Records
---
Amino acid sequence: MLTDPKAIKIIQAAKQKNVRDPRRSRVHFENILSAFFSDVTLDGRYLDLGPGQFDFGELAREQGGTCMGVDFDPPVLELGRYKGFDTLELNLKALPKHDFDETFDGVFNKFALNAFWTGHDADGQLKMAQAIDALIKPGGWGWLAPWNGAPKATTLSQKEQQDVLNLQKDSFEACGFETVVLTRAQLKAYGVNGNVANNVVYIKNLSHKP
């Protein structure tokens, strides 16, 4: 929840309605840490893809860690800088083409990746997974909850949509990620219960403790 008047003013210009809401609780992030990070101390250097109001970054900072937020929305980045975080303006669709000058102890993503960006392009799906995996240091972790919402005007059949989702799943698993299918209760607890085509989390070097 945002209480600082300046922070509230900054985020009110964000593109996404849920990101603009200053009353957002960070309980979803606390639940994620409890379920997936109970044996992990967040005292390293992390990357948050689509950081929203930088809730994950703040939780990491409370444990001694640092975090960079990557987003395409200027108000989100401005909020991050105001809160003292490193930021990078980048559309996540272009992630495979961007050269980072560092790798990270962990990469976090909550509802800011979409399998339908690349659709049936198997090479594109794999390149996205490989680009994210390449940002993780050896032995580091990954936690990715994609927002796999099909475009409103899609002409893809249910089978064709499932084929796209399978390509994403196969790509991340080829990079050493594990696919966790979430229950309805878990979706609500982790704040990833939006209108999407599937409900999964991809994890690497983490364990799930419901």
Note: The radius of gyration is 16 Å.
---
Amino acid sequence: MQNTSKKYSITTVVGFEPAPEDGMNFTPAKSEFVSQFDKLLNDMQQVTEEVVRVISHQDFHQYIHGLITDSGPRFKSIVEESYDNKQIKKDIDEKIASDFQLIEQSAKSCENVRDVYEFDQTFSFEDFKSTN
């Protein structure tokens, strides 16, 4: 990714698809980054949802009796519905998409060395030695 802030870095490996018309492949692919990012956010929210908060601890019920109900909004729903969360997630998704677009454009320049790659995949040194 374009690392403008020096705060993050993700890496993908670029390779040739077997059929030239299929272009290049990326491992992991953009969809995998987006999927893992979504999973990470969900896991973080799930852990936070499961952590017992002081206000929920039974020893404090005598002090807050009647002020808090179990039917109130939970942490995960509060976070997922917040404008800031939605905006930041959108910004990160856009950053991943724009960085992959740059990677895809840069990878096109590798197409001119596909012949070298294919030669390397099929070359047999033993066969070469036997012809001389």
Note: The radius of gyration is 25 Å.
---
Amino acid sequence: MTYQVLDVPTDASTQLEQLGTKAKFWFRLDAERRMLFKEGRPGTGENWAEKISCEVASLLGLPHAEYALALWRGRQGVVTPSIVPENGRLIHGNELLAKVFDQYDPVASYRDSQHTLRRVVAVLRSPGVGLPLAWPEPDEVTSAVGVFAGYLLLDALVGNQDRHHEN
């Protein structure tokens, strides 16, 4: 299978994204679509790994961000549309964990001992935490915990090691 590579306009960058370790920025592809360009580190395979993970998630029927391979100013990366609805706000896992557990440190570093499967499941079972918006869930998945289990399966299949408390 072959995939097209999207050429991101040279002057596309409108807002830097601070989260994460990769260089990235937001831009508008057109009036409707706000996109994120993430530059992969050379020689790591990060770009094709994002694209393949997206395709595997789709095959599994998991809600996921769409990714396309991209090129900006000669730099290889991927682009993905924003998953946040207009006038919405993205709430990261560490924010939810800190709301449910009083002593939880939302800015804790990598491999923090407070970030446990038991706590994640407790948050996912909290009132108000439901299935992803506009996701046509299958009959077998009836809760946020079920979706999370699907993500753990995806992580195992693709070798993802980035399931930290902000994700």
Note: DSSP finds four helices and six strands in the chain.
---
Amino acid sequence: MRVCIFCGGGSSNNPEVEKVAKNLMKEFHHLGIELVYGGASIGIMGTLANELLARGGRVTGVIPEKLMTREIAHDQLTELVVVTGMHERKKLMYDRSDAFLILPGGMGTLDELFEILTWKQLGYHSKPIAILNIDHYYDSLLAFLDHAVNAGLVKAKDREYLFHSSEWDNIWNYFCESVK
């Protein structure tokens, strides 16, 4: 299975995020999961790639030319694909992935989450999407989505497209049930 992780190119102030990211890559290696991600060597992205590579896992990075120096492209990946822009990046990450996992991140992560979620809502794909809610990072966002359902602006069935848990095992089971 190839899992795309959307997460921060920066580092979190919460040390739990890096700890969980490292443990997650131990699980990826154990399960034989290939990582598809944004191609950076820094921040949470770099932590994920470095940990899985150190264990002999496969890591594919997709990075726009403009971010090659800003995000400091990782030069030790199994494969690094350089694209012209963000839309091409997201499309290629989508094409190369069986499931999507969201870790803590900023505006770019939210953009990626909502675009892939919208694609699913519109019927462009049926791949599973999940948030690993590390240390309650996404509680407010999840509450907002529930509020949007109550306000009638998000359909309950569309809200259900976004699975979430603070436990990787729950997400892995969801992915396995969804990707058959």
Note: The mean pLDDT is 96.
